[in-house]
Amino acid sequence: MHALTTTDFVLRLATGVACGALIGVERQWRARMAGLRTNALVAAGATLFVLYSEAVGDAGSATRVASYVVSGIGFLGGGVILRDGAGVRGLNTAATLWCSAAVGVLAASGKLAFAALGTLAVLAVHLVLRPAGRLLDKAPSAGSDPDALARATVHLRCARKAETHVRALLLQALAGSGLTPTGLRAHRESEDTTGVRATVTVEGSVAAAMEQVVTRLSLEPGVQDLHWHLEGDEGHAAPLAADQALA
Question: Is the pLDDT of residue 247 over 60?
Answer without folding.
Answer: no
